[in-house]
Design brief:
heterodimer, A: 107 residues, B: 117 residues, mainly beta, 7-stranded mixed beta sheet, 4-stranded antiparallel beta sheet
């Protein structure tokens, strides 16, 4: 099984800040990495797929990068609606696994 | 735009079988565009992929749950289903159905299932 490790677990930031969340895979996953945003009581929302492709309708202040085992999600110019929990997810062709999540909170 | 809706009992007794159905609208399960997945999330915790089914009935499961899980598809009803046997309190969670390829493109709203006597 491929394990996904996200850091940090919690991130405190202010409106207008730029933040970066890191996700590491236990083995190479090429660019089969997605990022999700989840707000309380809601289903996750796909933000980025294939490491750097922005899902339709997702603001351009979100960006993803990386390959093989190290990936990052960057959010520029944080907006109030961006405070949420973020998850990375890998795909190995037959199965999926998620990182443990990063709670982005207002400082 | 694919829409998914979970349905099923919200309370299951320990050792019994959890059964949920996901109804798909806005697209046909039979087109083969997506895999049809189940994901769960215990309260306050992270996401766990349970397994998926393709339109042909082919399945893949999370190895940690494989011995207790069955996912099936009913193309005539545009639905797919989840069964988890021998449930315990550890199976208490919000269960989501989702349309997936390499990522989970569309999600249902989720349904809470509590395992308790």
């Amino acid at each position: 099984d491929i394990q996904m490790t996200q850091s940090p677990s919690t991130l405190s930031a202010s409106i207008g800040d730029t933040v970066t969340i890191t996700c590491r895979a236990s083995q190479s996953i090429s660019r089969w990495l997605a990022w999700y945003q989840q707000k309380p009581g809601k289903a996750p929302k796909l933000l980025v797929y294939q490491a750097s492709r922005l899902e339709n309708g997702v603001p351009s202040r979100f960006s993803g990068s990386g390959s093989e085992t190290k990936f990052t999600l960057t959010i520029n110019n944080l907006q109030p609606e961006d405070f949420a929990t973020y998850y990375c997810q890998q795909y190995d062709g037959n199965s999926y696994s998620f990182g443990q999540g990063t709670n982005l909170e207002i400082k | 735009q694919v829409h998914l809706q979970e349905s099923g009992p919200g309370l299951v007794k320990p050792s019994q079988t959890l059964s949920l159905t996901c109804t798909v609208s806005g697209g046909s399960i039979s087109t083969g565009t997506y895999y049809w997945s189940w994901v769960r999330q215990p309260a306050g915790k992270g996401l766990e992929w349970i397994g998926r089914v393709y339109t042909t009935g082919s399945t893949n499961y999370n190895p940690s749950l494989k011995s207790r899980v069955t996912i099936s598809v009913d193309t005539s009803k545009n639905q797919f289903s989840l069964k988890v046997t021998s449930v315990t309190a550890a199976d208490t969670a919000v269960y989501y159905c989702a349309a997936s390829n390499d990522a989970f493109d569309f999600w249902g709203q989720g349904t809470m299932v509590i395992v308790s006597s």
